[in-house]
Amino acid sequence: MKFAVLLTFAAASPALAQPTIDWYTIDGGGGTSTGGTYSLSGTIGQPDAGVMTGGTYTLSGGFWVGAATPAPPCDPDLNQDGNVDQDDVLYLINVIGGGDNPTGIDPDFNLDGNADQDDVLALINAIGGGGCP
Asked: In whole angstroms, what is the distance from residue 109 CA to residue 96 CA?
């Protein structure tokens, strides 16, 4: 019997190298994180590794690619004069229209990827106590 088992192993062909798997994903479970008007859903496991960028946002895949960075602070005092008022709205309208921007603000106040009238409305809402976008 021992000879038959030994003969079986000797007759087996040697294992050949398998092809390389150069891309894969493991998905399952996960949850959702929300803050303000934004929501991000994710999965547990190795997400599709890499970086995706869209507008002002970047999403990096991989195992704990870095510590979470807080959202930039919302500062409705766009003209940096120490007051949050209608002058900030006028400043934003001027910058969106292509005027001077001495404070270097990003005119996309609501962070939707466009500098337009929606940013002016979001700024008015923030000044009126409605909170930042």
From this structure: 10
